[in-house]
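thoughts on both lines:
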Amino acid sequence: MTEPVSVARVVRAFALTGILSIGGGRAAFFYDALVTRRRWMRVEEFLQDFTLAQLLPGATFANLSITLGHRLAGIGGAFGGLLAVIVPGGVILIVLAAIYLARGLTPDVTTLMRGMSAAVVGLVAVTTLRMARPALISVRAVSIAAVTYVAVGPLRLNTPLVIVVMTAIGLWLHRPAVGDAPAGDRA
């Protein structure tokens, strides 16, 4: 477990992430800020919170800010982290929406959006690669990832259904062996 961080420090770090991060790349910014640069949490802790944020309904970045904020600074960190990520992005969205409504989707804006979307794909790819090594540590984990990829990608099966089925299979495959004591019960 990580050492607690003050709510004020969580809010500052998350506000910076909220201002600087874009779209699907927010997980990469969170990872860089909390795991790589500040070392406030271990990769495994980040992966647990990221997995939970992905599985819960709602916006992943909001879920992630709540789970990470709670891990770092309790309930205050969860609420402060959420507000620190949502408010800057909300303000920027309102400003960009006003500009868009005033000017429309001009060729320059279209080009800019293509460039930004390419950057987001790169950020998501980097985050995925960083998290793959600690997450895919067994044949079972690699198998679950591969089957999920094939089911959602090439086979185009219903994503929520695949997630539910693969989560159930993953829990079953990673269940404790009979007779294993929970980690907290070991001497």
Observations:
- The helical segments are 7-20, 26-37, 43-55, 60-103, 107-135, 139-152, 159-173.
- The chain has a mean pLDDT of 87.
